[in-house]
Amino acid sequence: MSSSPVRKPSESRLELRLNGELREVPRAPKRKLVEVLRIELGLTGTKFGCGEGACGACTVLIDGRPVEACQTFIEEVEGRSVTTVEGLSVGGKLNAVQRAFADLGSFQCGFCTPGMVVRATALLQINPHPTPAQIREAMEGSLCRCGGYRRILGAIERAAENGGTR
Ligand code: FES
Ligand code: FES
Known about the structure:
By secondary structure, this protein is an alpha+beta fold.
């Protein structure tokens, strides 16, 4: 009589909730989240800039909080919820922050934009009506080489006026 193999939890893979869906990825001790997102999962909206946690281009949400994916090992997100810029849309539509960035043309090269949008979305989720000073403080971790801060801050104020993140 042959016995059917019992499926054991994999030691070589780990599970996370990515943009609302359960995903398995290889467990790799030194692998950074930004590499897994961009190279293995094709989510290239998360940008790789400085690689040192200084520019914010790689910002994603981990359990709703903005975190630099270049400073996060993949094993740190096991069992946690990760949201990238691709996962911010609501019902297939851009969220209010994304719409405001587009409507106000709040980018030049656009390289910083996904991280900015992710960070601003996190802010408006916990503080739907921030003051300009609170917006500037919350966005300090995201740098724009093109220097378009005025329009970026304007877009976040517009998104707040339009209902936060929806
Ligand atoms: Fe991660 Fe700059 S690439 S903070
Ligand atoms: Fe170019 Fe921000 S729009 S880095």
